Amino acid sequence: MKKSVLLFTLIFVFFLTGSFTEHNPNAWSIEGTWELESFYNYDGENVIDTIKKSDGYRQVKMYSKEKIMWTRYVPDDPNGRFGYGSYQVVGDSLIEIIEYGDDNMMKALDTMRNFTFELIHNDDSFSQITVDSDGNRTFSENYKRID
To answer: What is the total count of domains within the chain?
Structure first.
């Protein structure tokens, strides 16, 4: 009898904890492939200007479970740009830690590797907003999900 109660308790706990840790299919995830659509300039809080991409400009970000890779093509720049690293979404913040990239990115990494953005999202889009040292919004990149 004791073995039956113990077995029942273990099975019950297994199913109970499994239901709490199941992946929520309705939860938003940044995992996937995203393409830049536009930029915003802010007055500290509100959008004051929307800047569309120029013709031929393309920027794509790919987020896997823990890694990010981004690439940018600008028609007037024959070298292109890219970066690779890890990321975390913590509350309403997106934190990217870039490990390596193109020549210009590697030069920038000498001074800064961690990039923290305010994150605003819905099902198929997100904005990563740069915030100054006083907490004022300054600039954002706005992405749409393509995969």
So the answer is: 1
